Amino acid sequence: xxxxxxxxxxxxxxxxxxxxxxxxxxxxxxxxxxxxxxxxxxxxxxxxxxxxxxxxxxxxxxxxxxxxxxxxxxxxxxxxxxxxxxxxxxxxxxxxxxxxxxxxxxxxxxxxxxxxxxxxxxxxxxxxxxxxxxxxxxxxxxxxxxxxxxxxxxxxxxxxxxxxxxxxxxxxxxxxxxxxxxxxxxxxxxxxxxxxxxxxxxxxxxxxxxxxxxxxxxxxxxxxxxxxxxxxxxxxxxxxxxxxxxxxxxxxxxxxxxxxxxxxxxxxxxxxxxxxxxxxxxxxxxxxxxxxxxxxxxxxxxxxxxxxxxxxxxxxxxxxxxxxxxxxxxxxxxxxxx
Length: 338
Fold this sequence. Notes:
The chain has 15 helices and 7 strands. By secondary structure, the chain is an alpha+beta fold.
């Protein structure tokens, strides 16, 4: 693997693992059957699920397990970063500056996508920046052999076997061929790093060429990202949330996404904007979260924050998307006010 692909793989793994985007590994199961035997069974399974024989023969012919994929899966590090440390790495000033440049470069297309799906252009660019550094680091593994390696391995075989069948479905539908279906070692694909299941759920053929191309077609990348957020429940005209200041006697029982109150109720409980001003007078339900516990920063978040969480189940990730979106759009959001 080239140095570039190694760096790309490391970056994607770093982002996914820090943000909790990969399914957790399970304890080792019984040693799997020989790969050729397993692959024969998979071919029958794929055919029974409607995948054409031509796709099966082309995509699964002569593939072998990829040892590097197993190494990466086995060596996933345990990250113990605070949110401040995570934000410094994933939401850096350099990424904000480059995000503003990308927003200006693709403004017409992004505005069109935003109008259609109700998701701000700045949010699309923020996700694009976090997932693949604006399309620069999309992964250097062929998705079919990578997923087959993980599906055969046994630790998360059920999850990856389903994703493999979905990947074959995408090929069978004609969106891309197996040789060009590239992604991370864990199977996340293209500039928005969709797993095959997310692709089938939300990918869009925005330019009308008959293919949903999240690898190279910018219109499809942006529209697919926006469509997934909309399907996740994104509310047009709403924001994600904001950093807040809590009163000294704020009860721990109020903290968490399971508790939702109106902004007026949070105002009565003493919650204020980070600069001490009153909360907005808007009729919207909100929750208070403290991702680093009682001694860390506090944020008030809305349902659009939950929509981002459905993309990646990490408070750190969702908060950073919100922060980058604000800053790329010119808002001077301060996540750690003094």
